[in-house]
Design goal:
The chain is of the alpha/beta class. The protein is built from 11 helices and 8 strands. The longest helix has 15 residues, at 140-154. It is globular. Bound molecules: SN-glycerol-3-phosphate.
């Protein structure tokens, strides 16, 4: 399973890159707004830091506006993936991008039919938002299971990119189900290696090592 980081914070991306397991980055308008910096400036820094897919979201909600932004953003770098919401104008824009050879990440997916429509339009990635479904007492991970089955039934190669991840268990379940990608916030990435027995075990090894004579 590929690991993307879900942030526009360049400091976080730099730290995650240093771990050597980062495959890409996803951003969205809210994450860009949090940086309080211009979109292009942030995007260019991210593209310099990461050698992998970087999702940049359109903000137009009509077909012409979306493809205008898709053309502009995709011309910036070959690693750019155009993030498009799964609305009808979005679906037209996804089909257009597919025909133009522009990669797409279809966002704001909350049910399996949206995922099927995105795959039929040739989307490169589908982003089901698991945390936001859990927030309203629906089972986010069940949606991932359903999409996995539908895509496998028909051989779609759209990659399932689990988004809105809130905890390490979302990452574990994504891997068990066979999702292609998990896009993970920095604080969750940071918690993936943590285990109290690892911490305690290492402390003990170092303490015992002090008893070993030097020569
Ligand atoms: O980037 C899309 C998604 O990961 C958003 O997550 O935490 O705002 O629901 P969240």
């Amino acid at each position: 399973m590929k690991f993307f980081i879900d942030t526009a914070d360049v400091g976080e991306i730099r730290e995650a890159t240093a771990l050597g397991v980062l495959d890409g980055v996803t951003t969205n308008p809210s994450l860009i707004a949090k940086t309080r910096r211009p979109f292009r400036e942030v995007l260019e820094e991210i593209l310099d830091l990461v050698d992998g897919p970087v999702s940049a979201e359109v903000t137009a909600v009509d077909f012409e506006g979306m493809i205008g932004e898709a053309k502009e953003l995709s011309s910036l770098h070959e690693n750019i993936v155009i993030k498009i919401p799964i609305i009808s104008e979005g679906l037209k824009a996804i089909s257009w991008c597919t025909n133009e050879g522009i990669k797409t990440n279809v966002t704001l997916c909350f049910n399996p039919m949206q995922a099927l429509m995105a795959a039929k339009a040739g989307a490169s990635y589908i982003s089901p938002f698991v945390g936001r479904l859990d927030d309203i007492s629906q089972d986010g991970m069940e949606l991932i299971t359903q999409i996995r089955q539908i895509y496998d039934n028909y051989g779609f190669d759209t990659e399932i990119l689990v988004a809105s991840i809130r905890s390490p268990m979302h990452v574990v379940q994504s891997a068990l189900i066979g999702a292609d990608v998990a896009t993970i916030p920095f604080k969750v990435i940071d918690s993936l290696l943590k285990h109290p027995l690892t911490t305690r075990g290492l402390e003990q090894f170092l303490k015992d090592w002090e008893q070993v004579p030097s020569q």
